[in-house]
Amino acid sequence: MLKIGVLGTGHLGKFHLNNWKEIPGIDIVGFYDPDDNIAKEVSDTYQILRFSDTLALMESCDALDIVAPTNHHFELCEQAIKRGKHVFVEKPLANTMQEAEQLVKLVNESGIKLQVGHVERFNPAYLSVKDMHLNPMFIEVHRLAQFNPRGTEVSVILDLMIHDIDIILSIVKSDVKNISASGVGVLTDTPDIANVRIEFHNGCVANLTSSRISMKKMRKMRLFQKDAYIGIDFLNKKSEVFKLKDSSDNNMFAFDIETPHGKKTVAIANPIVPEVNAIRKELEEFRNAILNNTKTVVSEIDGLMAMDVAHQILHKIGNLIITT
Fold first, then answer.
1. 3-state SS class at 68
2. E strands within the chain?
3. DSSP symbol at 25
């Protein structure tokens, strides 16, 4: 049995506990939460031991699931890694680039497994298309959420947009060439809504809009590439594909269109979306990486790269605010 300890049992931490309880081969040794009311609720509901000391919990486990606020990520990850414990840590990897770089160094030196909680990598809508030949040259993203005081200790860039940054970096196999961004803090002291344009050296351009003060929810990504369009609806767990038909598309609905270069056949498909619980899937993959000694799906390097772009965006927005 793989012994797991959970650090932080607030809103998201409870989701993690519910899923850990359903994953075979896992023994939840205990949890730590500084809030007595939350801790009592968790102890009563889950019948799991509360540890009053983080280090004592770490010593009792093989791996830690860190679901604490972002400003605690570095300290808790550092303590766990130095004790040879595997780490699952919620996104973003750390609070600052310096902290993230230090964690990458510690993981490399220790040989433990670290996975970052970029849960949209496991969204069933994304899973339904990720193995297609994705080579987008234009990406459009809208991630809109209603205001929730939880999570506002970080900007909308590190709270919401970083999910899409991570996915885009995993799809576009090219370095970032240029970033332009604008953002406004409406209800908090950090940007609550932002629009970003990322240009890559291979010519791909990504336009991202994220807001946490919207009246409606939306989590959509649209990929445009030569001969194909792929739409991913993360919120409603749906995907769609429009492409020029080839010999392998016999099972797809198709119709002819007239173009300046003659008649072409367009194929349309709604890929089969697997019935997957994204949180459970990411935790299962973390367990598998430990047991099979394989790479984690979202590594510390992935977490660092997403943070690097996110912080470049914050820097651009900060400069814009200062100069206006």
1. coil
2. 2-7, 26-32, 63-66, 86-90, 114-117, 138-144, 176-184, 193-200, 205-211, 218-225, 228-233, 238-244, 253-259, 262-269
3. T
Closest C-alpha among 230, 172, 222, 220 to residue 200: 172
CATH of 122-276+309-323, one of 2.60.120.890, 1.10.3720.10, 3.30.360.10, 3.10.20.310: 3.30.360.10
What phi and psi values does residue 213 have, to the nearest 5 degrees? -130, 35
Q: What is the pLDDT of residues 201-256, one digit of tens each?
A: 999 999 999 999 998 999 999 999 998 999 999 999 999 998 876 655 556 666 56
**Encoding tokens for residue 232?**
């991913």
Strand order in the sheet with 63-66: 26-32, 2-7, 63-66, 86-90, 114-117
Q: pLDDT tens for residues 290-305?
A: 999 999 999 999 999 9
Amino acid identity of residue 88, one-letter, is F
Q: Radius of gyration over alpha carbons of the chain, in Å?
A: 21
Is 321 in a helix, a strand, or coil? helix
Do 144 and 211 contact (CB within 8 A), yes or no?
yes
Cα torsion for 300, 302, 307, 309, to the nearest 10°? 160
